[in-house]
Design a protein that fits this description.
Blueprint (H helix, E strand, L loop, with lengths): L14 E6 L5 E4 L1 H7 L3 H4 L22 E7 L5 E10 L6 E7 H19 L3 E6 L5 E4 L17 H4 L2 H17 L3 E9 L7 E12 L5 E10 L1 H19 L6 H12 L6 E7 H4 L15 E8 L22 H7 L4 E4 H8 L2 H7 L6 E9 L2 E10 L8 H38 L4 E4 L2 E8 L8 E9 L5 E11 L1 H19 L4 H18 L10 E9 L4 E7 L5 E3 L5 E3 L18 E4 L5 E5 L1 H4 L6 H18 L3 H10 L10 E8 L7 E6 L4 H17 L5 H18 L4 E7 L2 E8 L19 H8 L2 E6 L4 E8 L3
Length: 788
């Protein structure tokens, strides 16, 4: 047994040594020998070594062999079996006998065999490091294992990326200091030199100690889990792509989700280019070959933060491509993998290359967004920081992600087309945003939900009525999309028709409620439960300085008085439209000149929070601040519709802001006459005097005829009292009020008839005429153009 034999990773065997002369007498005796046979040097020296044998008679006639086993008798009387070996020295008169206990020899041989087995492995890595973590022995010295070679004497930082080396060294240092082993710890490793790459290792480490238990280093075992790690990484990337991409119907958002999924786990730089037609919701043309593909950069992402300044910026058109084989492959729906040099030769334009290849980019992969036989765009990725190029497995993965992404982009494109159609229809159905009459100035605004993704049925309207009166309307149809928009159009048309009949707001809502009920009956069974609406109607009378309003399941308006006070109008709203069977109640409030009445849908309140009362107060405060700023109504309406800016809109919203104007002084004249024959002459005389005072003698003849006819009919058929009112503004209005509810009718008189031509003449001589009903009686009005 050689005295230098040790069990790798274990304690050295206790080797006894004895020096004997030619006669076999012991002339030298080691301390290890004293411990092994329990006999001191004084007992052994100058005596034959054979006297130590437990069975001297078993010695062969030629003497003991140069190596083998023997049983020795110890000083205590027990025996010990040893393995021995006789080595000759340079002095031929002396020989050295080395011996070790047989059980220790077996353990040492086993440890040696284990060490040889570990060092011969090419699937399990083994590294024995000293206390400085330098390599003492390893099976990686010739690069037989995955990754770069690991020569004896090398340190971690010599072969690994600095950040990875620091992490591994910290773990091994902990094992060396504490003695706590490291078991199957996952470690990512990037090489500092060729062959470049990244590996995933399963690392186990234990501390090695000498016979006295002092640390001598660390023994490290690891297996290469790179293939499993890459497969798991690709699986996670597929799962993340399927869960993330396509979750929005916004084309730009879908493109951004694609690059956010790829960077940094798959690539260092990525972008998505989309066909110009796709971003507007249309289908791209089918093209094949190079040239201008009409692509535009839609989304970008860089692992290093800001987008590199030399690359094509988002929103920029993609330059034309030469007719390259890789371009045709992309147009055919296939993924390509290339490198910088190949791309440089193909483009042949340094300026184009600078836009298409990031600095340091060495490997590129691109896949088309291919759906229904159309190339909607392409997704491209580069590797710059990570040294390994893209492989076939990466191409298969990107092909799968691109196919899923193409469906998301195509769904977003089709939704954009429908959304654009709904927006166009919605805008066409809404009135002008700003209107102005002698008695009122209005401004409206509409905003879809989710930044434009949800077009609904909210609307506003300002309807001019006779005698300078104005009807203000806001409404909200249940649901979103084209069905809600179409229903909104039908309701707005109905409201305009009913308003022209000059019904009171509560009566108008009653008729509108019947219409919504009929629409629900006509709808498909699956949609009947979602046909409904809320509505608010207000009619402003500038002569009376009042506003009569009624609501069907709608929030009350805000009234801002000239003194700056802003508060919601106190009123009792009725049920939403379509419920049926419940009445609507009208409320009348005074609105002095320069007051501002603000109507809105409930979607506007949601832009300020969820608590209705709190949102109403916040909206009122915001309106007061905007009015105090002196902005015009259009700016105020737009500022209100945007809300507080902290919450995304969950519902579409409409707002209508109306500022009450003051009529000119002495622009209205009122009289009341008894139901007597002389009332006709008195009415004519009063009207003619007022027209002369206003300087409207050119309207005297027609006005005299109108007053005579209307007052005569009132005295004859309705009784008294009879009211007469003249209103002068951009037109001349003549109103006659009587207590009868009988509807006046115009008819064509026969030649023999003595009457029946009055209303016919009134209609022929005026611009328009009509009648409206109050709580008691009716009013017939006639509108004339001012003479001159």
């Amino acid at each position: 047994m050689n005295a230098g034999d040790v069990a790798d990773g274990g304690s050295p065997a206790q080797v006894a040594s004895a020096l004997v002369d030619r006669r076999g007498a012991v002339v030298g005796w080691s301390r290890a020998a004293e411990r092994l046979v329990e006999r001191s040097a004084a007992e052994i020296l100058r005596r034959s070594v054979l006297r130590l044998l437990a069975d001297p008679d078993a010695v062969p006639p030629g003497g003991l062999p140069d190596s083998g086993t023997a049983r020795l008798r110890c000083g205590s009387g027990k025996t010990v079996t040893v393995c021995y070996r006789v080595d000759g020295l340079r002095n031929p008169a002396l020989s050295l006998i080395l011996a070790v206990a047989a059980d220790q020899a077996s353990e040492s041989e086993w440890a040696s065999a284990l060490s040889r087995a570990l060092l011969a492995q090419n699937r399990v890595g083994f590294v024995l490091r000293d206390t400085d973590l330098a390599v003492v022995r390893t099976n990686l010295a010739r690069g037989a294992f995955a990754g770069p070679p690991l020569p004896v004497g090398s340190r971690l930082s010599d072969v690994m990326h600095a950040a990875d080396a620091a992490g591994v060294e910290a773990r091994l240092r902990g094992v060396l200091e504490t003695g706590v082993p490291l078991a199957a710890s996952e470690q990512r490793v990037r090489s500092a030199g060729p062959p470049y790459g990244e590996w995933s290792l399963s690392v186990s480490a234990v501390r090695t100690e000498d016979a006295r238990g002092r640390p001598t280093g660390v023994a490290v075992l690891f297996t290469d889990a790179t293939e499993h790690w890459q497969a798991e990484r690709r699986r996670e990337l597929r799962h993340r792509a399927s869960a993330r991409i396509g979750g929005t119907l916004d084309i730009g958002g879908t493109a951004q989700d694609i690059v956010d999924t790829l960077v940094p786990d798959f690539a260092d730089v990525a972008w998505v280019d989309l066909a110009d037609a796709v971003s507007t919701g249309d289908e791209p043309p089918k093209t094949f070959g190079g040239g201008d593909l009409h692509l535009r950069r839609a989304a970008v992402r860089s692992a290093n933060g800001p987008w590199p300044p030399g690359l094509l910026r988002p929103g920029s058109p993609v330059p034309a491509f030469p007719d390259l084989p890789m371009v045709r492959e992309l147009q055919g729906g296939r993924t390509i993998v290339t490198d910088r040099k190949t791309l440089e030769r193909g483009l042949a334009d340094p300026a184009h290359l600078r836009l298409a290849a990031p600095e340091g980019g060495h490997s590129m992969i691109a896949a088309p967004l291919f759906a229904r036989g159309l190339v909607l765009g392409l997704v491209a990725a580069w590797r710059t920081d990570r040294p390994e190029p893209f492989e076939e497995e990466d191409a298969a993965l990107l092909t799968e992600i691109a196919a899923h992404s193409a469906l998301g982009v195509d769904n977003a494109r089709r939704y954009t087309r429908e959304h654009r159609a709904a927006v166009t229809l919605q805008r066409r159905l809404l009135p002008p945003a700003v209107t102005s009459t002698p008695a009122m100035e209005t401004a409206g605004a509409y905003m879809p939900a989710s930044g434009g993704a949800e077009i609904g049925g909210d609307w506003f309207d300002a309807i001019e009525l006779p005698s300078l009166r104005t009807a203000l309307v806001v409404g909200d149809v249940t649901g979103h999309g084209l069905h809600a928009t179409a229903t909104m159009g039908r309701l707005r048309t109905a409201v305009q028709t009913l308003a022209d009949l000059e019904l009171t707001p509560d009566e108008l809502l009653t008729h509108l409620d019947d219409l919504v009920f009929r629409l629900a009956v006509e709808a498909e069974p699956a949609r009947r439960d979602v046909v409904g609406a809320t509505c608010f109607v207000a009619v402003h009378d500038p002569v009376a300085g009042r506003c009569t309003m009624a609501a069907a399941g709608h929030p009350p308006p805000l009234l801002a008085l000239p003194n700056g006070r802003v508060a919601p109008v106190t009123m009792r709203p009725g049920p939403p439209l379509g419920v049926g069977g419940l009445p609507f109640e009208a409320t009348t409030v005074d609105v002095p000149p320069d007051s501002v009445l603000t109507l809105y849908t409930d979607g506007l309140l949601q832009r300020y929070g969820t608590d209705i009362d709190g949102c109403t107060r916040e909206l009122a405060d915001r309106l007061a601040r905007l009015l105090a700023s002196g902005d015009d109504l259009a700016a105020i309406a737009q500022a209100l519709i945007t809300g507080s800016g902290t919450r995304p809109p969950r519902d579409d919203a409409a707002v209508l802001v109306a500022r009450i104007a003051a009529l000119e002084a002495d622009s209205v004249a009122d009289w009341e006459f008894p139901a007597a024959p002389r009332a006709v002459a008195s009415a004519r005389e009063a009207a003619m005097g007022k027209l002369a005072e206003w300087g409207l003698e050119g309207n005297a003849f027609v006005t005299e005829l109108i007053v005579s006819e209307l007052v005569t009919n009132a005295v004859r058929y309705a009784g008294g009292p009879v009211g007469l009112r003249l209103i002068r503004d951009e037109a001349l209005f003549c109103e006659v009020t009587d207590p009868s509810n009988t509807q006046p009718r115009m008819r064509r008189a026969r030649t023999s008839d003595e009457g029946g031509r009055g209303l016919f003449l009134v209609a022929q001589l005026s611009r328009r005429w009509g009648s409206r009903y109050g709580q008691t009686g009716k009013t017939i009005w006639v509108e004339q153009e001012l003479s001159g």
